[in-house]
Amino acid sequence: MMNNQLLQLLIERLKAKGKTIAVAESCTGGLFSGALTEIPGSSDCFGLGVITYSNLAKHEQLGIPWEILNQFGAVSYQTAFFMAQSVKRLAQSDLGISFTGIAGPSGGTETKPVGLVYMALALEDSCVVRKFYFTGPRHEIRMATVQEGINLVLHYFK
Fold it and tell me: Which segments constitute the CinA C-terminal domain (predicted)?
């Protein structure tokens, strides 16, 4: 279950600062965007969320270079960085957040295990990328990713 108080706080802070946010999701499949839209008034600060689950979608919708996807993979620091920057630019928003990871139960490797998630927050003049290792079943990994995304944006306002 998502923490609605934190979501409400996130929306209030975005609105108070006059900031907008856009979202690019892969492993979360729209959960972050869905969580934002649970909060009344979120349309004042949230206008675009894209789900780019495949590499083709990441390339075609967000313009992630094939060189990045081929060299580093969809689940990488570089891809998360480009996703956040691209969705921010695409939406002409103040902030862009992205999520890419391996939610399982399959798909993991020795170097990229199930539970590995990268998220990035593109700010006005910089981009912060975080790497996480979550455990548990698929749903828990995805929900933990969304929760950490909320925390990441809230941290921006501190």
Answer: 5-156
pTM of the model: 0.96
* 8 A C-beta contact, residue 80 and residue 62: no
With vertex at residue 55, the alpha carbon angle to CA 10 and CA 24, rounded to the nearest 5 degrees, is 10
CATH number at residue 55: 3.90.950.20
Q: Containing H/E element for 111? A: none
Alpha-carbon span 38 to 93, nearest angstrom: 20
- Please tell me the predicted confidence (pLDDT) of residue 2: 64
The structural domain count of the chain equals: 1
Q: CA-CA distance, 60 to 75, in Å (whole number)?
A: 17
Residue 157 banded pLDDT, cuts 50, 70, 90: confident
